[in-house]
Amino acid sequence: MFSFELEATCGAARAGIFMTPHGPLPTPVFAPVGTQATVKAVEPRELRELGATLVLSNTYHLYMRPGDELVRDMGGLHRFMAWDRPMLTDSGGFQVFSLGELRQIDAHGVTFRSHLDGSVHRFTPEKSIQIQHNLGADIIMCFDECPPPLEREVVRAACERTHAWARACLDEHVRSGDPHRQALFGIVQGGIFEDLRAESVETLVALDFPGYAIGGLAVGETKPQMLLTLEQTVPVLPADKPRYLMGVGSPEDLVNGVARGIDIFDCVLPTRVARNGSALTRRGRINMRNLQYATDSAPIEEGCTCYACANFSRAYVRHLVKAGEILAHQLLSLHNLHLLLTLMREMRAAIMDGTFPDYAQEFLANYQPTGKKAKAPPVA
Amino acid sequence: MFSFELEATCGAARAGIFMTPHGPLPTPVFAPVGTQATVKAVEPRELRELGATLVLSNTYHLYMRPGDELVRDMGGLHRFMAWDRPMLTDSGGFQVFSLGELRQIDAHGVTFRSHLDGSVHRFTPEKSIQIQHNLGADIIMCFDECPPPLEREVVRAACERTHAWARACLDEHVRSGDPHRQALFGIVQGGIFEDLRAESVETLVALDFPGYAIGGLAVGETKPQMLLTLEQTVPVLPADKPRYLMGVGSPEDLVNGVARGIDIFDCVLPTRVARNGSALTRRGRINMRNLQYATDSAPIEEGCTCYACANFSRAYVRHLVKAGEILAHQLLSLHNLHLLLTLMREMRAAIMDGTFPDYAQEFLANYQPTGKKAKAPPVA
Q1: Which residues between 158 and 187 in chain A have a beta carbon less than 8 angstroms from any beta carbon of chain B?
Q2: Is A326 near chain B, with CB under 8 Å?
Q3: Spatial distance between the Cα atoms of A330 and A338, rounded to a whole number of angstroms
Q4: What is the DSSP letter of B379?
Q5: Which of A85, A100, A143, A243 could form a disulfide with A128 if both were Cys (CB 3.0 to 4.6 A apart)?
Q6: Number of C-beta neighbours around residue B99 at 10 A
Q7: Where are the domains of chain B?
Q8: pLDDT tens per residue, range A66-117
Q9: Domain A4-267 is classified in which CATH homologous superfamily?
């Protein structure tokens, strides 16, 4: 269980298969995010139809509501949300650190107040792993500290804590979990500092995790800083283990990440921008509220084969967005996920064919990043 | 085009087929309501999968947004919302009368302010028909006045206006429409008064519409008053034309309506109660927020074959409702529509088999109406 086989490489880009108890996970792969045990506005059968193979759900949110013990008693997260393919849970760390003044960190964990009712809770490495055992995802994550990536001394302290907590997570997983049922991934921290990243990799690799995440990116650094950090960090990671870039997922980031050797991605972006009335396309993001679409009979994206584009006009989608109709969220979420999942499949095929550099270059040449118009992610 | 063939009767209940330019419409039939050119939270392919054959959309809402001329320019309502089966539009009358102080009625029409931006508009019988021509539904409705059903003098005056407007609608339809493409139904008014209903039927039947609606019910009278009015009105309607009970659609109302000879129904109830977190079942309505469902692994309704019941527990649906997830609206809407559409198919089969009275009796014996807990419909 949890073997990782590389099928092809093309420069730094890799095509592989990660075996899980819920079936093979072809990589590179993008995981839609189902924060509260549902990918917002998308049915599990639709995720399947879109070709999604991995779904991420959030430990913090499910611990809060409906409670991880309830999910366990209902047969685990797969059964609860009717998703029978591979699943990943985060550790809850990112969410509790995002609570700002509602949380207090110490050497052994984080005490925080619920964003729902203000009640006091405490996450430790052990607690995070226990919750993730109850949820039962195939891939679970170490409880880490995710600091602002630009302040060296803050990052260094967070690394030390992250490393101590990684050992505690591993111990708890071995003690009370089943490493054949759930693979615990380590999370590399180190901000934008090459030496700290290298040191973090070295420390975690000594613990021999079945996969490694790169955490603490896409949370404040510039795009060039993020890409440089990937270029510095990925080469020192073991080649025979999957590499997961957490929380990243714009179309250009996926291409740039794969080009630098990343295997797994997740992001709320495609479904969040959908609910804001925007569509991702191969040329960039478009706001469906724009008046220019009012009488536009073309689909959201010409040439797209998703259900939304095969059946509806931009004029109709704009009407739904303007009228506040739920179907707008449904159709735009389907389209945006379709684009990212198709992109991942195309990149995998290009890696297998040895044509990935051309593919990536052409994609990026056509793509206009949103840049300053992109909204910052909300807290928690 | 628009022929109506009766296939079987069983007491007053009838099974028929109404031919439309978008295919045959087996009756009795329930039409899900797509107020703003979408049945809320349900994709057209899902409506098809549920076996929906007729969808209603609202003239008032589409006139306001995105505008009936835009819908016409986009190829008509069928194409705009990707629904290729029969469709029905109301006249806008019910909505503009519901605007209360925002509207003023005179002999020739209604002047009103938009609920969206306060702008002033005017509907006349001619205007309503012109809008419905632009929308292009298979079945269109006369612009009528729908008064409170219990005040005789108010009802009498509304009948006179309704009859004059019915003539004006028919004239406009013949003048500028295509009666082979769109069937204009007359609407019988008369409140709970047998003689006024009979007079309304007589007046409208003289105009020879291809179908007749019973309007002005389910807007203030008691259930026994509604059923008595059906028993008094249906027998005087022509047997060879479809009969449409407007705005009615709880499970028990559908059974009671079919038992009294109604062929067509529409109602927002199944999708509206879904968005309020409630499920319709064969035993009555249940509020999925109830604590008792928190750890209930049973489906919403035992024995139901809909997508929601085949895949998800009450515990999961409750979680979605409590967490405010869109998927709650999707799953409950699918389930509620599935129940009503299945009910209609079962009633049709029972009429064909000659077992309808037993079927209706058994259904009503098991069903617990919501009674006073039911919410009044909102304005417009």
Answers
A1: none
A2: yes
A3: 12
A4: P
A5: A143
A6: 17
A7: 4-268, 274-371
A8: 999 999 999 999 999 999 999 999 999 999 988 888 899 999 999 999 989 9
A9: Queuine tRNA-ribosyltransferase-like (3.20.20.105)
- Give the per-residue SS3 of A3-70: CEEEEEEECCEEEEEEEECCEEEEECEEEEECCCCCCCCCCHHHHHHCCCCCEEECHHHHHHCCCHHH
CB of A65 less than 8 A from some CB of B: yes
Mean pLDDT of B362-366: 97
CB distance A42 to A330 below 8 Å: yes
Contact A80/B313, CB-based, under 8 Å?
yes
Average pLDDT over residues B246-266: 97
Contact B349, B27 (CB under 8 A): no
CA angle B98, B102, B104 (to 5 degrees): 90
Q: What is the pLDDT of residues A25-76, one digit of tens each?
A: 999 999 999 999 999 999 999 999 999 999 999 999 999 999 999 999 999 9
Mean pLDDT value across residues B126-142? 98
Please give the ipTM for the structure prediction. Answer: 0.96
Choose the weakest-confidence range: A255-264, A371-380, B235-244.
A371-380
CA distance A55 to A132: 14
A-facing residues of B in 333-362 (CB < 8 A) are none
Ramachandran sector of residue A118 (left: φ over 0; alpha: ψ -120 to 50; beta: rest): left
Q: Which of B307, B318, B326 sits opposite A40 (nearest CB)?
A: B326
Output the average pLDDT for chain A: 96
pTM of the model: 0.96
Is B285:A27 a contact under the CB 8 Å cutoff?
A: no
Chain B nearest C-alpha distance from A216 (Å): 28
* Contact: A41, B73; criterion CB under 8 Å: no
How far apart CA A371 and CA A374 sit, in angstroms, is 6
Q: Residue B371 has what pLDDT?
A: 58
Per the CB < 8 A criterion, the answer to whether B300 and B278 are in contact is: no
SS3 A242: coil
Q: B322 contacts in A (CB within 8 Å)? A: 65-66
Q: Which residues on chain B are in Cβ contact (under 8 Å) with A297? A: 74-75
CATH level 2 (architecture), domain B4-268: Alpha-Beta Barrel (3.20)
Q: Is A202 helix (H, G, I), strand (E, B) or coil?
A: helix
* CA pair distance B72, B69, nearest whole angstrom: 5
The counts of H helices and E strands in chain A are: 15, 16
Does B36 touch chain A if contact means CB atoms closer than 8 Å?
yes
Report the catalytic residues of B.
Answer: 90, 266
Q: Is A263 a catalytic residue?
A: no
Cβ contact B315–A75 (<8 Å): no
C-alpha A126/C-alpha A340 separation (Å) is 34
Q: Is the Cβ–Cβ distance between B245 and B230 less than 8 Å?
A: yes
Tell me the pLDDT of chain B averaged across its residues: 96
Of A38, A45, A329, the CB nearest to B307: A45
| A contacts of B60 (beta carbons < 8 Å) | none
Q: Residue A215 pLDDT more than 60?
A: yes
Residues above pLDDT 70, as percent of chain B:
97
